[in-house]
Amino acid sequence: MTASETTQEKVLCPVCGGPVDVFSEDKVNRCEYCAAPILSPGQNRNCVNHSGTLAKEVCHVCGDLICEECEQKRVGEYGGKLLTIVNCDKPACIAESEWAKPLNEDYLKLANMDWADRIDNLVLRITGVGAIMIMVFELIFFIGMLYFQFLTPWSIPAIILFDIPAWFTIPLFILLLSVLGNLLSAILLQSALQVYIHERQLGAGITLMVILIIEVAHLLFRGLFFGLLGLPNPIFLPMLLGAFLFGTILVFTGSLMAMYVGNKKRTQLKEAREKLHLSL
Q1: Which element (helix H / strand E) includes 11?
Q2: Per the domain annotation, does 280 fall within a domain?
Q3: Residue 243 resides in a domain
Q4: Rounded to the nearest 5°, which phi and psi values hold at 164?
Q5: Is 96 in the same domain as 128?
Q6: Co-location of 209 and 174 in the same domain
């Protein structure tokens, strides 16, 4: 290990305040907590290629300080968000950054969606909570059906399927219909997680609405098929339906918001491309 690679001292990160070990005196160090670039106290602030020019950026690949003349900016998608990537003009650094597209700053300004961050978080929370409530509803519904069927005098109307006895067909239908309900609720939750991604928000909102309609229809079918109005417990069904209704309202509201915001973003991107005469 060379002297420049040995830990010389600790400095505090100006971004998050965390302690940073200075491993290199001639390279930019990274805060292990927030990944902010940290210069060592004695490091030259000039561009590595132009000694008389103050550096403006840090190469995200090699960590060299570079000026505007040496920098190359690219934009890449990670986790549904656009990130700006900076690299220097060394071939190795350019090759490492080729996964991101060259930055069109005019397009980036027109396509900036910072305005949607707060509403995206709100939509994610609304749809996520609603989808989780429906998943919990499905689990309780399944357990409740088994309880009332086998531990109370109440019974689901006999299901005649060929010559298979009812003691087998009734649990089978409870299981199959509950599995279908849980599958629908899982798709709801997965779609709810997609509303935070700009490019998928509109499609996720439409998917949520379609799956929600199928889920409601599936519940009505089960209610009629199992004869749930005849349940001996007068509290179980209203409480269960109340929870389902609340979750449905949340998902319905979130899906409408996702479709509205997603369509607005889509229109913004389309207008940006048209204004800059970029291919659609």
Answers
A1: strand 10-12
A2: no
A3: yes
A4: -80, 135
A5: no
A6: yes
Question: Which stretches of 55-210 are assigned E, i.e. beta strand?
Answer: 57-58, 65-66, 72-78, 81-87, 101-102
Query: Phi/psi of residue 273, each to 5°?
Result: -65, -40
Clarify whether residues 139 and 89 are in a common domain: no
163 with 24, same domain? no
pLDDT at 8: 59
The DSSP secondary structure of 15-34, one letter per residue, reads: TT--EEE---SSS-EE-TTT
Residue 58 and residue 163 in one domain: no
Q: What is the pTM of this model?
A: 0.67
What are residue 155's DSSP bridge partners? none
> Do 119 and 257 touch, CB atoms closer than 8 A?
yes
Percent helix, strand and coil across the chain, each to the nearest 5:
55, 10, 35
The terminus-to-terminus CA distance of the chain in angstroms comes to 52
pLDDT 10s digits, 82-131: 678 888 988 898 888 888 887 777 777 888 888 999 999 999 999 999 99
Parent domain of 205 = 115-275
